[in-house]
Amino acid sequence: MLKQNAYGNLEKISLGSCNLFCHVHEVQGRLTVKTNSPWYTQIQIEMAACELQEGALIIYTEKGVCIVNVPFHKDFWLHLRKKLKTFFLEFVLLVLSS
Description:
Blueprint: E1 2-4, E2 10-12, E3 24-27, E4 30-33, H1 38-50, E5 54-60, E6 65-71, H2 74-97
Antiparallel strand pairs: 1-2, 3-4, 5-6
């Protein structure tokens, strides 16, 4: 797997037995978070709450540290926000009002 070092250069690292391949993959030599990963959803919510256009996912393993830059995805957020609003109105508000 690749990671960026302190100088911005990509270098190979071994992530050992840590199973990150369900969360990240390489695209054109750069690590990206898969959009079907719960990590992607979490960081998109956090960026929307903080009104950020980019975030960094920092992955610590026994074999190294990876930093994956994640851009804010407005369409993903708008779809997710609709689902969150429905969940809040149909479940959370119901419990809070009872």
